Task: inverse folding
């Protein structure tokens, strides 16, 4: 009771500041752990493109500032700073090259981690180096630009659609670098550290709010773009993208991936005899019944008209058939005249059916659905013989 109340309060707390975000989606602002593969893939693509852009700008700007330092600083100090800038530049070039490769959530996470870690390490190195230098005038002004680097790093959080936990991790990284420069300094000043921390936390708070706000808008746009407006299921286009992602994940991990192709029986009669509004209500009710039987990782896609595909990652054909039999036994709702609404279902599984790709898997489930219709409808076909549950 207390746990559910806390979850509800947390969801409402994060949903309220961002208009259009459903309370059930609010947990996605905190952590990416519970994201569906499509949101994860789309966010990774957005993060990767922005990381590549920022890394490219820094790869050019970082060595260019060496020219200013060459004019302002003594040769020995300039050489030491130039070496640090050269290493940082190579790091940014490496990030840029990685961002030009294949997309992926882990690749995007590593890229953004490196993007923030490199300037934090650069700051830690150069801040300790510059504290021993008796600089005045223009040289002092140039050296002081390094002092503002932690603030720039934290401000850069606002460029990316990040979760609250990701923003906190970056903030901790920068604060740790700042704390180390003070603790390792020969002129440690606790009051100065406290003042810097306060300002850094203020910048981090504003940047985090902007970043999480971007993520909320991103989630809302993805939901609007990928969902079927009538039923709330994933649309066919987004379903194809999800199938591609899930098939690749299943192949890499050598885990099962099951599909169920569900076609509502005699749906055309509903439209012909009762009108399209009645047909729409039947579809909405059917989706409500199917959605109530889904696991956390299952995905329901409206493939077209009265046809749906249920994507079931991680379960084999036998368990998929059991799940669909349970769904069939519980029913899909009622027709306008009061008769039970039934469906013909074809089941296919990547490993058992040796599907070459996700399209072959869909085609096989589709063929078995038509076989279920041919054999009398209101049944499941997963191999060559129907499983009618009677």
Result:
């Amino acid at each position: 009771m207390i746990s559910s109340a806390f979850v509800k309060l947390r969801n409402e707390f994060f949903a309220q500041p961002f208009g259009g975000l459903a309370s059930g989606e609010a947990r996605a602002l905190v952590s990416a752990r519970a994201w569906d593969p499509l949101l994860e893939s789309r966010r990774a693509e957005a993060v990767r493109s922005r990381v590549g852009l920022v890394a490219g700008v820094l790869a050019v700007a970082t060595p260019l500032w060496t020219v200013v330092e060459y004019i302002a600083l003594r040769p020995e100090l300039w050489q030491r700073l130039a070496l640090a800038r050269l290493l940082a530049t190579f790091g940014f070039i490496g990030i840029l090259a990685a961002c030009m490769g294949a997309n992926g959530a882990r690749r995007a996470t590593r890229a953004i981690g490196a993007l923030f870690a490199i300037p934090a390490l650069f700051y830690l190195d150069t801040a300790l180096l510059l504290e021993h230098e008796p600089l005045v005038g223009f040289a002092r002004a140039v050296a002081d630009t390094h002092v503002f680097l932690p603030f720039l790093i934290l401000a850069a959080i606002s460029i990316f659609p990040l979760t609250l936990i990701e923003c906190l991790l970056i903030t901790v990284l920068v604060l740790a670098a700042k704390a180390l420069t003070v603790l390792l300094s020969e002129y440690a000043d606790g009051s100065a550290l406290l003042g810097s921390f306060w300002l850094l936390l203020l910048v981090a708070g504003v940047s985090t709010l902007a970043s999480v706000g971007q993520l909320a808008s991103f989630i809302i746009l993805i939901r609007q773009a990928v969902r079927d407006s009538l039923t709330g299921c994933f649309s066919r286009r987004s379903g194809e993208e999800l199938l591609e992602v899930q098939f690749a994940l299943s192949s890499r991990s050598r885990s099962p991936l099951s599909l169920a192709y569900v076609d509502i029986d005699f749906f055309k009669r509903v439209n012909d005899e009762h009108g399209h509004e009645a047909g729409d209500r039947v579809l909405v009710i059917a989706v409500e019944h199917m959605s109530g039987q889904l696991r956390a990782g299952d995905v329901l896609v409206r493939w077209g008209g009265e046809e749906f595909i249920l994507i079931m990652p991680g379960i084999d054909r036998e368990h998929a058939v059991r799940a669909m039999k349970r769904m069939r036994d519980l029913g899909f709702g009622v027709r306008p005249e009061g008769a039970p609404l039934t469906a013909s279902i074809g089941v296919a599984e990547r490993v058992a059916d040796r599907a070459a790709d996700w399209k072959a898997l869909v085609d096989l489930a589709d063929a078995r659905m038509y076989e279920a219709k041919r054999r009398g409808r209101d049944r499941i076909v997963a191999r060559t013989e129907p499983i009618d549950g009677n």
Q: What stands out?
A: The first strand starts at residue 257 and ends at 264. Strands lie at 257-264, 299-304, 307-313, 343-349, 380-381, 386-387. Residues 21-225 form one domain. The mean pLDDT is 87.
